[in-house]
């Protein structure tokens, strides 16, 4: 048996990807990032903001490069969205990172089903009920 796949880049750099995937799966516009240098030109301090699904998130910290600031704000947004989904959909609780079903459901050929809907559609079900 092959060992589990391990990404070649650090975990903290995966949040932009996860946020992008969430937008695609939820059929909402992709995240839009903006960064501001709050430091001097020779010693930049970037803070980023991301707009996704009508919500704006801002990084708490500043970083010496724009890319790190964007990854940080993506983590903030992704974790907030994940928490919001879990709180607003108590029946359909999905761990967005591992794709495990926490609530009721059944597995058929590796796909989790709830009321005959694939679990990956649960985000839209929750969004429509708000």
TrEMBL record:
PANTHER family: DRBM DOMAIN-CONTAINING PROTEIN (PTHR46031:SF37), PTHR46031. Residues 14-83 form the DRBM domain. It comes from Nelumbo nucifera (Sacred lotus). One of its GO terms (biological process) is RNA processing. InterPro entries: dsRBD_dom. Pfam families: dsrm. It comes from the Eukaryota. Keywords: Repeat, RNA-binding. The lineage of its organism: Eukaryota, Viridiplantae, Streptophyta, Embryophyta, Tracheophyta. One of its GO terms (cellular component) is nucleus. One of its GO terms (molecular function) is double-stranded RNA binding. This is Double-stranded RNA-binding protein 1-like.
